Amino acid sequence: MNSEQIEQSAKNIRIDRAAIDHARILADAEAALEKSREPGSAEIQPTIWRKIMKSPITKLSSAAAVIIAVAVGSMYFGTSIDGTRAVLAEVIQNVEQSNSAKWQEKRIFTCDGNEISFLNSDAIRYFSSKYGSREDMYNKEGLLLHQAYWLIQENVRIRVVPPMGQYERTELTEAERGIWGQPGFRAIMELLKAEKPTPLGRSEINGRQTEGFQITDSGMEALIPIQVDSGVARIWVDVQTSLPIQYEAELLTSDKLITSMTGGKPVQIAVTGHDPRWNVEIEPSLFEPNIPRDYTIIEPTPVGPIGLETITNFKVMPENWLEIPHVEIPRDPLSWPSDIGNIEYIHKSREGVTIVLRKQFAVNIAAFQLQCNWDDLEDFYEKLDICFIGASNASPGSYAILSPEVATHVFELADSSDVFALRSRTTLKAGNGHKCLLGVSNLGSAVLGTVQKYNEQHIALSFSFFPHAWLESPETPGVNRASVDIQGIKVGPREAVLVRYANPARLISKDGSNAEDDSMESIVMLLVQIAEVKR
Fold it and tell me: Per CATH, is 52-280 categorized as 2.50.20.10?
């Protein structure tokens, strides 16, 4: 297939309106998700949390600790709460003399005023002046996402991630040592501007009278381990006990790994710590990480030349990854449109076998120039944890590839406006059993629910898009479905089909007239062909 054929295929995309049973589609997706979680299923892992648990989102655990320290520590530079009953110095003294604490924390993510529910999480946090801190983080369904430990005696942070069957071990940062060590708060404040908090006055929280204080432009953004564009922290102190009863923070981030889920739009993060219990009895065993013997370690992301950050989704980077200039890659038959990005890395598992990794926006999709056997692919799979799927129009034994971080997450995000749910249908043989639920995010990451291998040689794909944003948006009334047919395309060895849904897309209304919607995100989907890979 040459570039003209690819371009013509993209031009032939037709998006039309038609009625659709939304409830049935969602029910099908939910049923597929439940099936994927059955014992022995290839889809138990990975899920969307594979990506999330490796992203800066989980670093909010440390970020929240910074917020606490900043909010409380800033009182060193303040005055009395009400002039008589509670003095800030007393608050500081009470906090620092507390040998233990337990509280809950909630994190809410929003974009353009809409809640991103699948990113929200709740946490139970523990603190011991002797051992350090621990956090148990859960998603909205109550699934344990991770257990994080900040162990001051060992000077390590350990994170156990059950959904991935992995764990992580790193040294404490300077900020983390300052937060969880004693005296703690003063050490943090030495890293910040000496700014006085702004009094917020009295407020009743859970039947208690509190005094509030707000800190802005304190420099805490520099200590939070994600990219934060701006931040505001508030703390509420019980006037009876002179102890904090609640803390809050509002952060604005444009961190790429977070905004990759929102089409590049900034994300607001609201963090609330509440219901603290001070000087509670905490068993020492709570600070002994429980790491199952079969868990593997999450290797730190290597630091390398510019561009290496684009492959942080992969948990291990083999030693034989080599960076090579784009000009050294053979151009034929890898003729890609310029907006897909440059080839940046090449992997050689043995002589004559080459695996090429391409950069596509913030999402990684691996493309192949292969003539090898299954063992070579299996080696690549083990190193990078990549799952394979039967390719469209594939010859027997051929595979396409998808990164596991996004596989199956279309089900997790069925209620999210930034995900398009797809259903693929094979037109060669009806009812051949190859039913895969696919998804394409607005940054072009392909996902699928059921990993299958196609045995048919020529498969014409037909995708039906059911974007939640279109179905609910008042700007696009009556748009119920956008169907795209990709037929008659035969992918040869070492070739790839690029399907690009340009912005604005061409909408066909019921009366046959065209309508343009400039608000639609550009979508790119890559179907990758591998040459005769046989087991």
Answer: yes
